[in-house]
Amino acid sequence: MTDGLSANLQHLETSATIAISAEARRRKAAGEDVIDLGAGEPDFPTPQVPAEAGIRAIKDGKTHYSANEGILELRAAAATHLSLLSGGRPVNADHIVVSNGSKQSLFNACFTLFGPGDVVAIPAPAWVSYPQIVHLARARPVMIAGDPEWSLKASVKDLARMLPGATGLILCSPCNPTGAVYTHAEIRAIAQWATERKVWVIADEIYRRIHYGTGPAPSFLDLPEDLLERVVLITGVSKTYAMTGWRVGFALAPAKIAKAMAALQSHTTTGANHPAQFAAAAALGDERVEQDVQRMVGEFRKRRDIVVSRFRQDLPGVEFVDPLGAFYFFFRVDSFGKITGTDFCTRLITQSGVALVPGAAFGDDRWVRLSYAAATDSIKQALDRIVSFARKLGD
User: Fold this and answer.
1) Neighbouring C-beta atoms of residue 32, cutoff 10 Å
2) CB under 8 Å to 220, separation ≥6 — which residues?
3) Is 318 left (phi over 0), alpha (psi -120 to 50) or beta?
4) Which of 26-40, 189-203, 340-354 has the lowest mean pLDDT?
5) The domain at 7-45+290-394 falls in which architecture?
6) Is the pLDDT of residue 156 over 80?
7) Less CB within 10 Å around the terminal CB: N or C of the chain?
8) What residue spans define the domains of the chain?
9) Mean predicted confidence (pLDDT) in 99-107
10) For residue 3, what pLDDT is reported?
11) Pairing between strand 249-252 and 96-99?
């Protein structure tokens, strides 16, 4: 025990992305002109169909405890949804566990699969909570640096070279913070590597529908069944359906693991918000919502194109990852001189009123993350400020 706190928390740090948004809100409340491009959530309202389903559930008295693993309506809708995304392959609703957001699904999976002495590989840059959650499970996260020539993705060679004795791997695609997307061939190669070495894979596919190629992004569910025996797939409704505040995520896992995660959850949160589960079921199962999804993804694509073209035009020497999914733009700042991502973001919000997230939060402080999940006019105004600020640094 240290300073009165449990050793369980010895590695714990607050979420940098949440802290940036809180700082932006604080400055706005103080009257400053601040544009927040740090938030990792859609700026759109929840579509009408799931919103009304949630309200209807409350009015119908569906406000009590639900089953630990989630209501059948949602698990069935999720199974059908995942099946349709991957060519109609069978997906068993009994293998799905609903939680309070995909973050709890990730925690449940890590706490169920890993423990003291286990090593978990995490391709970096990576979302801030992955290593924190692994530490909470008393396992050891090992960050595997992605290749700058390969959109900062990690290959099987990288994994095999760095971690011959790995117990687990957490892989996010489309990726937060880079926007990179693993191809079908890359996912298959990683799954084969994991199967041969008996490595558990936690596949975070929360951004799968926000993909700028054809159809949804490639998924582990596109692979043959024999490559999925050690895969836990994490997803939810927060990003695709603009439902971050509803707090509904879910995991698809082998039967034994799903049962264990539900049992674990029965002693923590019991389960996800009951009315919110009916809203999520409507989001996944009502065809009318698909039009909302297509509209939102179309807007994200337009915003991505604005950001990419502006950097190419006005900051041509700046290295960045070409975003093929999610709603993040990850660019490198050390070309502006001896400056870190943290310094860049601190000076940018102070001098120019734009909030971005430094790469230190994701494991590499040479980079900075910009979220284009914001109104187009705000993005354009922020880009004006970023370009002006960056040019002054380069002088």
Assistant:
1) 12
2) 187, 191, 201, 203, 205, 227, 228, 231, 233
3) beta
4) 26-40
5) Alpha-Beta Complex (3.90)
6) yes
7) C
8) 7-45+290-394, 64-287
9) 97
10) 66
11) antiparallel
Mean of the per-residue pLDDT values of the chain: 93
Rounded percentage of the chain residues whose pLDDT exceeds 90: 83
Burial class (CB in 10 A: 0-12, 13-18, 19+), 142: middle
Which residues, 6 or more positions from 110, have their beta carbon under 8 angstroms from its beta carbon? 120, 133, 134, 136, 137, 139, 168, 170, 202
- What are the pLDDT digits (tens) for 172-198? 999 999 999 999 999 999 999 999 999
Range 64-287: architecture per CATH? 3-Layer(aba) Sandwich (3.40)
Reduce the secondary structure of the chain to three states and give it as a string: CECCECHHHCCCCCCHHHHHHHHHHHHHHCCCCCEECCCCCCCCCCCHHHHHHHHHHHHCCCCCCCCCCCCHHHHHHHHHHHHHHCCCCCCCHHHEEEECHHHHHHHHHHHHHCCCCCEEEEEECCCCHHHHHHHHCCCEEEEEECEHHHCCECCHHHHHHHCCCCCEEEEECCCCCCCCCCCHHHHHHHHHHHHHCCCEEEEECCCCCCECCCCCCCCHHHCCHHHCCCEEEEEECCCCCCCHHHCCEEEECCHHHHHHHHHHHHCCCCCCCHHHHHHHHHHHHCHHHHHHHHHHHHHHHHHHHHHHHHHHHHCCCCCECCCCECCEEEEECHHHCCCCHHHHHHHHHHHCCEECEEHHHHCCCCEEEEECCCCHHHHHHHHHHHHHHHHHHHC
* φ/ψ of residue 123, rounded to 5: -60, 135
Mean pLDDT of 65-73: 93
Residues in the chain: 395
Q: Kindly report, residue by residue over 206-257, the tens digit of the pLDDT.
A: 999 999 999 999 999 999 999 999 999 999 999 999 999 999 999 999 999 9
* pLDDT tens sequence across 115-150: 998 999 999 999 999 999 999 999 999 999 999 999
Neighbours of 338 (CB within 10 A): 6
Distance CA 228, CA 64 (A): 35
Spatial distance between the Cα atoms of 122 and 45, rounded to a whole number of angstroms: 32
Amino acid at 141: P
Is 177:362 a contact under the CB 8 Å cutoff?
A: yes
**Euclidean distance between CA atoms 102 and 95, whole angstroms:** 16
